[in-house]
Specification:
The protein has about 300 residues and is mostly helical. The chain has one domain. The chain is about 75% helix and about 0% strand. Helix 2 packs antiparallel against helix 4 and helix 7 runs antiparallel to helix 12. The radius of gyration is 19 Å and the shape is globular. The N terminus is likely disordered. It holds the Pfam family Mg_trans_NIPA. Keywords: Membrane, Transmembrane, Transmembrane helix. This is DMT family transporter.
Length: about 300
């Protein structure tokens, strides 16, 4: 092999197996988009009949959602999205497949525009392009530089400690500031929590493959369920105060960025990535985040 190609092959941590997770994650993104649209419709109907949810959805409103066929169908579709996402994590590193949920943003934006008969303005379209473009380039770099590594006990303990702190902060913040919570606050909260859900799912899958299922893994499952429950509640509140494509934008950018940050700093999935790749991760991630806040500000259905 020529010297130049040899150096390139050493720089790129390419494992053909990790590409299997990409199409699986894309199918999950489709279900994520459809599920979000149906759930948003169910929340909107319940909110219209129960005089809104300024302080967050009540227990009565949450129970009413179970009687809405559209919300139930949306929940089943989101369940399928989770199944496909978990399957993709079994093949690929978090930083490769988790950001691919951004594909759901394009699908949701088109569907919501057709259903609500509200045309997206120029600023919203630019924001969507920034979200998807930033995430797409991030995944392109990650696919050729990321590596799957065994999850150590120390890694899991660090993740669980961080999650415990995050859960306490969000629970406290919601109790104290729930009257001021707007769509973007709920979305950020849900995105951060779902980032931990994806990470813990990856950890549990890895430890099962390693035949290392013990009390710490059970604790990870409990943390996963707690984060999923609080994140799910935040998502339903976000639907009541913002359009579905804004919710999906936040979840498909903030969620993977949190998971990716943990994957890089704790799990070492970018340990073999060259310096230029790390710089690219920061730049493309910042572009995607800029798109989310742009959509929150300029979307024609966004509530100020």
């Amino acid at each position: 092999m020529p010297p130049g190609l040899s150096e390139l092959s050493e720089t790129i941590a390419l494992d053909p197996k990790q590409f299997i997770g990409i199409p699986i994650a894309l199918v999950g993104a489709v279900f994520l988009s459809l599920g979000a649209q149906f759930q948003h419709r169910g929340v909107a109907k319940v909110e219209a009949r129960t005089h809104g949810a300024d302080k967050g959805l009540s227990v009565k409103q949450l129970m009413a959602l179970l009687a809405r066929p559209s919300w139930v169908i949306g929940t089943l579709m989101l369940g399928l999205a989770v199944v496909f996402q978990l399957t993709s994590l079994g093949f690929s590193p978090i930083i490769v497949v988790q950001p691919l949920g951004a594909v759901a943003l394009v699908i949701t934006a088109v569907l919501n525009s057709r259903v609500s008969k509200v045309k997206l303005n120029r600023s919203s379209v630019i924001s969507i392009v920034l979200c998807v473009g930033g995430v797409g380039l991030f995944v392109l770099v990650a696919a050729f530089t990321a590596v799957d590594k065994p999850v150590t006990t120390r890694d899991l303990i660090v993740i669980l400690i961080i999650l415990a702190i995050v859960l306490l902060l969000f629970a406290f913040g919601f109790v104290v500031l729930r009257r001021r919570f707007k769509a973007i606050a709920y979305i950020v909260g849900a995105g951060v929590l779902y980032g931990f859900v994806a990470t813990l799912a990856k950890v549990v899958i890895s430890r099962i493959f390693q035949a290392h299922f013990e009390w710490l893994t059970v604790l990870a499952l409990i943390g996963l369920l707690a984060a999923a429950a609080l994140g799910g509640y935040f998502v339903q509140n976000a639907y009541s105060s913002g359009p579905p494509d804004l919710v999906i934008a936040g979840l498909t950018v903030i969620d993977p960025l949190v998971a990716v940050a943990i994957g890089i700093t704790v799990l070492g999935e970018a340990s073999q990535a060259p310096a230029w790749a790390l710089i690219a991760f920061v730049i493309f991630g910042a572009v995607a985040i800029l798109g989310v806040f742009g959509l929150a500000r300029y979307h024609p259905q966004a509530k100020r």
